[in-house]
């Protein structure tokens, strides 16, 4: 997914918080110059998009009037660059040379994150614990964090939203210990080893794989030491979180087993490849963490990242009017 089509203020604000650089293309369906420069913008997006580093968006100013007004968009197309959530540059009008010049200046920073998908997974804009499948990208920013539900969570640990943060897990530094005081940036199960995670999405996605990070530390002398996940059942397009008994009665779309050799010792992450044909039009996911890789009654998960592509193909519509000014 190279360009993200913005459908709400909340979606755009989430991107501003999760990506170091966001480029916004404010356009209108009736705008001829918008149509003319679209291939240039799309080409730059394909070349320079980097998960959590540089994100390219399109915003229909007629449909998202609040956003257009908030950022003083008075003509179409208008391209605005945001860095760390703040508006830093504006390119007004269909000027391919100027647009290319401004965006190419971001390329140097973008390339710094190319090696971040391996090794310790650290970059200036985000964190990854496993390689991203070629041809796909991180679509975790499409998670509706306000609608997350997590059953059987230990309330003394983190909330569900910490699983989808782009920051480097604290457990990486301590190889499992992390922040034991205050709000933890991981989750643990409570009464037994099972967790049920409901993940609503802001748009329809094609999901290729998941990255599951766990810095659980095995301890033979402590039967309360948490385990890493082993068996995960996946369900799609449910309207709500499943109860544990309910999940047992519903066939999973896919059941995966994470083997010991699947875990990267350095990043604590396992890449879970899915049966892509089964995950083509996904609006929500349910992850049922069934058991772990030991005998403990505690399960720990530090991060979940979703890798895939947008399942929506938006049409620009028929060119109805040529002009640059909104509302003409």
By CATH, the superfamily of the largest domain comes out as PITH domain
Q: Sum up the overall morphology in one term.
A: elongated
What is the CATH C-level name of the largest domain? Mainly Beta
Count of DSSP-assigned helices = 7
Residue fraction in strands:
25-35%
Question: How is this fold's topology laid out?
Answer:
Elements: E1 3-5, H1 9-18, E2 21-27, H2 32-48, E3 54-60, H3 65-70, E4 78-83, E5 86-92, H4 96-104, H5 107-111, E6 137-138, E7 149-151, H6 170-174, E8 187-188, E9 195-213, E10 229-236, H7 244-249, E11 254-257, E12 269-273, E13 282-292, E14 300-301, E15 303-310
Parallel strand pairs: 1-3, 2-3
Antiparallel strand pairs: 2-4, 4-5, 6-15, 7-9, 8-14, 9-12, 9-13, 9-15, 10-11, 10-13
Q: Could you characterize the architecture of this molecule?
A:
This protein is α+β, with helices and mostly antiparallel strands. The chain has 2 domains: about 5-110, 3-Layer(aba) Sandwich (Glutaredoxin), CATH 3.40.30; about 135-310, Jelly Rolls (Sandwich), CATH 2.60.120.470. Helices cover about 20% and strands about 30% of the residues. The protein has helices at about 10-20, 30-50, 65-70, 95-105, 105-110, 170-175, 245-250, and strands at about 5, 20-25, 55-60, 80-85, 85-90, 135-140, 150, 185-190, 195-215, 230-235, 255, 270-275, 280-290, 300, 305-310. The strands form 3 sheets. Strands 6, 7, 9, 10, 11, 12, 13 and 15 form an 8-stranded antiparallel beta sheet that branches. Helix 2 links the parallel strand 2 and strand 3 (about 55-60). Helix 2 runs parallel beside helix 4 (about 95-105). The longest helix has 17 residues, at about 30-50. The two termini are about 30 Å apart.
